[in-house]
């Protein structure tokens, strides 16, 4: 049976620290950490998870977009490890859309994020990749990158009226899907 680590919760110091760059991608502990993050994202039905969320201070996250009850229109993609990720540039358009976080349970918010971004990261195989990400996947990348810099999605909320409980969010989503 796969062991799923505890998720660091809001208030825990690791979530407010700057994560350390990964020096050796081939290090066994990093390979194990990637597997652990992927398994945790799948088990928790998350669309992304960053190493600090499982109390590991490394610049690493997983994007694992898939449609779900919370994000019914999310695109499907294989879980992807992004090591030492960087945001290189962004478009001008900023869009508010829904976000939640495994580390901030029972809270949802409308968070402003860039609609289109150019990013760079290393893969598990040590390749450096540059991609243009848009829409929901760009949102996940920005959310997870924030975790590596000690920022939570609630810090990005520009109006307290944009914060909702999970129950309120589910009610809004149910009404909008009719």
What is the name of the CATH topology?
Peptide Deformylase
Principal-axis shape equals globular
How does the helix and strand content classify structurally? Answer: alpha+beta
* Element-by-element helix/strand order: HEEEEEEEHEH
Give the domain tally.
1
Query: How large is the count of helical segments?
Result: 3
CATH superfamily: Peptide deformylase
* Tally of strands: 8
Tell me roughly what share of residues is in helical segments: 10-25%
CATH level 1 name? Alpha Beta
Regions with little confidence, pLDDT below 50 for 5+ residues = none
Strand order of the largest sheet: 1-2-3-6-7
What fraction strand? 25-35%
CATH 2nd-level architecture: Alpha-Beta Complex
Rounded average pLDDT: 94
- The first-to-last residue Cα distance is 39 Å
Can you give a write-up of this model?
The structure is a single chain. By secondary structure, this protein is an alpha+beta fold. It has one domain (13-176): Peptide deformylase (Peptide Deformylase, Alpha-Beta Complex), CATH 3.90.45.10. 23% of the residues lie in helices and 30% in strands. The protein has 3 helices and 8 strands; from the N terminus they run αβββββββαβα. The protein has helices at residues 28-43, 135-148, 166-176, and strands at residues 48-50, 60-63, 80-90, 94-101, 104-114, 116-122, 128-134, 163-165. The strands form 2 sheets. Strands 1-2-3-6-7 form a 5-stranded antiparallel beta sheet. It has a 3-stranded antiparallel beta sheet with strand order 4-5-8. Strand 6 (116-122) and strand 7 form a beta hairpin. The longest helix is centred in the first third of the chain and has 16 residues, at 28-43. It starts with 27 loop residues before the first helix and ends with a helix.
